[in-house]
Design brief:
2 copies of one chain form a homodimer. By secondary structure, chain A is mainly α. Chain A has helices at residues 11-24, 36-43, 47-59, 78-99, 105-124, 127-144, 150-169, 179-191, 195-214; strands spanning 33-34, 64-65, 71-72. Chain A folds into 2 domains: 11-72, Winged helix-like DNA-binding domain superfamily/Winged helix DNA-binding domain (Arc Repressor Mutant, subunit A, Orthogonal Bundle), CATH 1.10.10.10; 78-214, Four Helix Bundle (Hemerythrin (Met), subunit A). Helix content of chain A is 61%, strand content 2%. The first copy, chain A, has a 3-stranded antiparallel sheet. In chain A, a hairpin with a 5-residue loop joins strand 2 and strand 3 (71-72). Residues 217-232 and 236-241 of chain A have low confidence and may be disordered. Chains A and B meet through helix 3, helix 4 and helix 7 of A and helix 3, helix 4 and helix 7 of B. Chain A binds a DNA duplex through residues 1-4, 6, 10-12, 35-38, 45-49, 51-52, 68-71.
DNA sequence: AGCAATTATTTGTGATCACAAATTCCTGTC
DNA sequence: GACAGGAATTTGTGATCACAAATAATTGCT
């Protein structure tokens, strides 16, 4: 079909993954307009696949569709952020608890390793690396409990938070972040296979990690009104991490 | 754009809504293959819009995309159903609790009215009417708490359960269903504005309503292998209910 | 200069088409 | 009759195009 060699995924799917990754990595500025043709040109492909990729991201609430059919990166509101935090707590606590029966020492040691990588990224001030490793830590845990149901739901919530998270890691916010402390609690609960403690640790991690921003001056002067996209969508095509 | 008069929604969006409604109403049999061209012919439109509508439903996990690009109605497994029930409990308990501050007597009386409509539908043996009113009852409650975050997540879970629910209302299963009893508990908790009791009532409603099926002989001989779609997709285009 | 009206451009929409992969149907063989 | 092999059909994919709505740019007027 089309022009794909066997083994190669569809162009639309690769486009989707590239865009999603860019969103998760914080390359999409809230408020910016995203045009089909703009991305199609950046990627050197026809608008067809881009349209489908964008619509998929709209369906996952990573992007929003205006009444006139225009796609853009959603702007965060306090109410929405509070709801997203609630959703994260609901879903991720349950996903973590569901993971407990499947936890092995191997998984725990991997989480310990990822946690060290997170600390290194924070110390080095490497935003992107922090986001990647932090994401990897959480999803490594949630993946243990199986979950063709919970994971997509959680991913949708992360996609909605990610464009906003960009702010948390740039500038003065970074110093307030001691996320890894809570990760240690998570790891300790896992070592004891203590589901209840794990649930509280996950909730605390989320609440302290993001919830703190609700009351802070996060609504900084927008670089949102900036021009059209070209946000450096990296086409690198690896399985989601 | 295209050929739509102003005020009319896009064809793709109407197609999506029609398909989603059919899924929620139980017209889609698990395992059945859904083809782009098939639906396009049924609806008398070009494949383009249908493809986008289908992909959106795939993104929402209402349908699944095989490795070869084929779209079909997912087949339920015990594990997945257990996960879906867990997800419903997580999300809907929270959504209900979030609704409590916004509950008015007017909402409560509407729920009472809907609950009576559900009972009537059960007595009359009207499956479709039962599904519609039952859905209306739950989402009327969840909508009170605002929620541009929780509602889409809950809708995704409902879409995943719906094709399976078709079984619960046909044949011998119906007699076991006394869903409305739990709805009364929900209403009583709402009248007292008792968030904690409400949470338990919602959980009980979900667990008893669907959870009972996990242990029952729900995996009846499939009419799944039946021919291509043409499942009577009703094109009626009203705002989602 | 400030603002409204008009023109030009951009952008989403949906149809059509060519192509190749996947599926189905038919046939021939054992 | 069951099954493998091959032709015919179906199906998804992605590009291209015409069109109209929406946005941006320009012009003209006060």
């Amino acid at each position: 079909m089309g022009s794909s060699r066997p083994g190669t995924q569809s162009l639309q799917s690769r486009t989707y993954r590239a865009l999603r990754r860019s969103i998760l990595d914080g390359d999409f500025v809230p408020g910016r307009a995203v045009t089909i043709r703009g991305i199609a040109e950046d990627l050197g492909i026809s608008p067809t696949s881009v349209r489908e990729a964008l619509r998929r991201l709209v369906a996952e609430r990573a992007l929003i569709l205006s009444a006139t059919g225009r796609v853009s990166v959603p702007v965060m509101t306090r109410e929405k952020l509070a709801e997203l935090v609630n959703a994260r707590i609901c879903l991720e606590r349950q996903a973590a608890i569901d993971a407990v029966p499947g936890i092995t020492d191997r998984v725990v040691s991997r989480l310990v390793r990822l946690n060290r990588a997170i600390d290194r990224a924070i110390e080095a001030g490497d935003h992107r690396r922090y986001l990647v490793t932090h994401r990897d830590f959480h999803f490594t845990l949630y993946r243990v409990g199986g979950g063709e149901v919970f994971l997509p739901l959680i991913e949708s919530v992360w996609l909605q938070i990610s464009p906003f998270l960009r702010y948390t890691l740039s500038g003065e916010h970074r110093s307030r972040y001691s996320t890894s402390d809570r990760h240690v609690e998570i790891i300790e609960a896992l070592e004891r296979r203590d589901a209840t403690a794990l649930g509280f640790a996950v909730e605390a991690d989320i609440r302290h990690g993001i919830g703190a921003l609700i009351e802070s001056d996060w609504n900084r002067p927008d670089d949102a009104a900036a021009g059209p996209n070209t946000a450096g969508i990296r086409t690198a095509d690896r399985e989601s991490g």
